[in-house]
């Protein structure tokens, strides 16, 4: 299991969090997603390391942006 934390910009409420969570959960291999709206931190648990571009695409699909890290 891998756990990776990303920073997502633009989330303001629980609805934002669930949109991001739903899209990121759609990435193959992802088993859990935890979103902290206040900090913008999104912690993703997956079977194998994820391609950051897949995560970026999912976050953008939800209407938000991945902060540069
Ligand atoms: Cu919102």
TrEMBL record:
Pfam families: HMA (PF00403). Residues 2-67 form the HMA domain. Keywords: Metal-binding. The keyword Isomerase does not apply. This is Copper chaperone CopZ. It comes from Streptoalloteichus tenebrarius (strain ATCC 17920 / DSM 40477 / JCM 4838 / CBS 697.72 / NBRC 16177 / NCIMB 11028 / NRRL B-12390 / A12253. 1 / ISP 5477) (Streptomyces tenebrarius).
């Amino acid at each position: 299991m891998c756990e990776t934390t990303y920073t997502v910009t633009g989330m303001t409420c629980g609805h934002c969090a669930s949109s991001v969570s739903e899209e990121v959960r759609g990435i193959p291999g992802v088993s859990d997603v935890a979103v902290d709206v206040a900090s913008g931190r999104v912690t993703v648990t997956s079977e194998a390391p994820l391609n950051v571009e897949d995560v970026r695409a999912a976050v953008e699909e939800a209407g938000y942006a991945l902060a540069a890290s």
